[in-house]
Please model this.
Amino acid sequence: MLAQRMSLLSGSGTAAAREAAALATAAGRQIVDLAAGEVIIEPPSSVCEGAIAAIRAGTNRYTDAIGLMALRKAVAKKLSAETGIDWNTDNIVITAGAKQGLLDAALAVLDPGDEVIIIRPCWPTFPSQVLLAGAKPVFVDARPPTYIPDIAAIRTAVTPRTKAIIINSPNNPTGAVYDRTTLQAIGDLAINYQLWIVSDECYSSFVFTAERHESIVMAHPSVRSRTILVNAFSKELAITGWRLGYFAAPAEIVSAAKKLQSLTTSNANVIAQHAILHHLQVGDGSFEREMHQRLSEARNIGLRILSGLHDVTPLNADGSFFFYLDLTRLISVLPPGGPVRSTDDIARLLLEETDVGSVAGSTFGDVNGLRLSFGVPPDQLESGLNRVVKTLNGLKTRQAAA
Ligand code: PLP
Model:
């Protein structure tokens, strides 16, 4: 018999959506996969060259459990430049992707019975990891069209057991980018109620409607001593499979992570560490700028196509690389009794009949949403979104005829 904790885990809905799209492709169908949580683009050559050089140099051994000192130094320098705040290696841990950093954070600060506030819709790994640590996720719903959380609702959710709040801006799946006032208010709450802040900033490179990404530690510098700022190279450099992330945190969290990582995975892959180090040393930022430009163009194309949707609230898509449709109104105007009653039904229909992969909001704890990635090549994006618009706009008639 399996341990009880396994019953807490429901598996990844995003992975299931991608698997369904991959199966349909394998069956010979021309699927446009807008379910992916990664940008489909070649990574920078400097990363590949760094990896090849490391292999050729016979780099095969363990590193420190929290990463090569040279890489921690380079990450501290990068983060200092991006945030305008000084970080040094005592604050930096190299992880096997952001996921490991988030798990380190959960295991380091949560005791059984603790509560953690999570803004919903949310990436499903957040509540799962909280449960794995024996604690309890407490959800606060952020509403469309902005999906910026209401501070009063967060305050109401705080109890004497609340230990932490997890925030994710730019957001997966909603694309929300929290404004400075919201970040400051969350910071104030964390200080007043003595909470840890876990700030997942994996999509920090993908902000489209503001000058640049603003971390909570920039908006409210005094929260730094209670913040675990998690990030990764997965999305930023289009290397999700290389498994290289990092976090910045107070020294006590860094030592906890050192114990956790040395007892579980040991160091993140050494070749990936050298590859990123090389990129950070020789990269001139051109890859990152081009990727941003490409995604910004894709976003414009997508917003234009999606503006043709009927009965769907216009969306913002301020950051990350997702369009998140609120389909509350569309579902409410569908004739009752037909086959389509939920966004799960819509995601299924899109895949089965229009050959488009998407992720239903139920994956993110929101029955009304539908996530579509714009991190795919422009021709695929146009073709996929045109099909989505045609299918959704035809739903009312189709359902009436069913
Ligand atoms: N955080 C968020 C909000 C994500 O959406 C994802 C991946 O989809 C991750 C973390 C995982 O990042 P990594 O692949 O670096 O573990």
Q: What stands out?
A: DSSP finds 15 helices and twelve strands in the chain.
